[in-house]
Specification:
Length: 317
């Protein structure tokens, strides 16, 4: 896809300006309430959709549809990240007023690592089409683990990033406001807040195992896959604070995500067969993928609300 240089510049400028405004708006530590989170969520979604309109106008309908599909896919898969964020914050007993600052730097790290992984992924797919079968197998296995209740537990304190941090410098038990590193007796000491950022980054690397193959099923264009990922990641913090107290209510959402992963795996297999075996084997159009993802997410949310989880030990209806 021939992407104008100016469009890349617009994207980078949008991300930098958005992060700057976000940082300035939250320079003082405070608890993010539901209303504030809702306003920021609406802002990030609007920004992502407006950029999608630009993609439609400049690059055409196909590119616009792929961007929208990839963004919605990444947005839905990122819900799993929210549960892990809650686990990490609970494990490290992070005061609510400091949580936004942690997620802000977590987002910056995620933008950098996703750029690396997606660039490598696009390069590999364009050179070795057969790797799509491997990506499909990863997604099918992830789907199976979710549906069978065999998802691996994530222990924030034992993550590789946190263990490496503890080897590099000592980590104290007490928080020092929003400081990540303090100096005591001439020594640099990490606060638990830096360990939390390390745990957040480690979690994102784990989720990239599903996220990268999934988005490459939608498009193998670097611009489409990265911009859609970036806008999904940018809105992740606000989404967390918006849904922090409601995550348990959407108990069917994980099942919906498993179905989406399985569907994307089938899409990858058909793509690989179309390119390697016969062009007569049909591929799933991006517009169909977008419709399927929207329907699955809608059904998952509706079922969760119509069939709430019964309280433990509560009377049967």
């Amino acid at each position: 896809m021939d992407v104008p240089v100016w469009l890349w510049i617009v994207f980078v400028a949008t991300v930098v300006i958005s992060l700057t405004v976000d940082l300035l708006a939250h320079r003082s530590a405070h608890v993010i309430g539901f209303r504030e989170a809702g306003l920021w969520s609406a802002l990030w979604v609007t920004l992502a959709l407006l950029f999608g309109v630009v993609v439609f106008v400049v690059l055409g309908t196909t590119a616009g549809t792929e961007y929208t599909t990839a963004w919605l896919l990444e947005k839905s898969l990122s819900v799993d990240n929210l549960f892990v964020f809650a686990l990490i914050f609970s494990y490290f007993k992070v005061p609510r007023a400091y949580q936004h600052r942690v997620l802000f730097f977590g987002v910056i790290g995620a933008l950098v690592f996703r750029a690396i992984f997606l660039a490598l992924g696009v390069a590999v797919v364009n050179r070795f089409t057969g790797v799509l079968f491997l990506f499909a197998a990863i997604l099918l296995y992830s789907s199976y683990k979710i549906l069978s209740g065999q998802e691996e537990d994530f222990d924030p304190g034992k993550s590789f990033a946190v263990r490496m941090l503890r080897r590099i410098m000592p980590v104290q038990d007490e928080y020092e406001g929003t400081h990540f590193i303090v100096r005591k007796e001439g020594k640099r000491i990490a606060t638990p807040l830096l360990a939390v950022v390390a745990a957040i980054e480690a979690a994102d690397l784990v989720f990239a195992v599903d996220s990268v193959p999934a988005v490459l099923a939608v498009s193998d264009d670097t611009f489409i896959v990265y911009t859609s990922n970036a806008f999904a990641i940018l809105g992740l913090r606000a989404l967390y604070f918006l849904l922090a107290g409601l995550l348990d209510r959407f108990h069917y959402l994980s099942h919906g995500l498993a179905v989406i992963l399985a569907f994307i795996a089938v899409k990858l297999i058909l793509q690989a067969c179309h390119k390697l075996i016969s062009t007569s084997i049909p591929e799933i159009p991006s517009l169909v993928s977008l419709a399927v993802i929207v329907v699955i997410l809608a059904v998952s949310v509706v079922l969760s609300l119509r069939r709430p989880v019964k309280p433990a030990g509560g009377p049967d209806e």
